[in-house]
Amino acid sequence: MEWLQSLQPERLLIFGLILSRVSGLIGTSTFFSWPEIPWRFRILIALALSGIILPLQWNAPLPVANEGLGGWGLILSEWLIGVSFGLATGLFFSAVQLAGELAARTSGLLLADMFDPNTGEQVPVLSQLYWLIAVCALFLTGGHRAVVVALLESFRAVPLGAFWSFDNLWELLTQLLAEGFLLAVRAAAPVVVALTAATMVLGLLSRTVPQLNILAVGFTINSLLVLVCVAATLTAVALVFQEHFDSFIQNVSEALSQWVVPVA
Question: Which residues, 6+ apart, have CB-to-CB distance to 110 below 8 Å?
Answer without folding.
Answer: 101, 104, 124
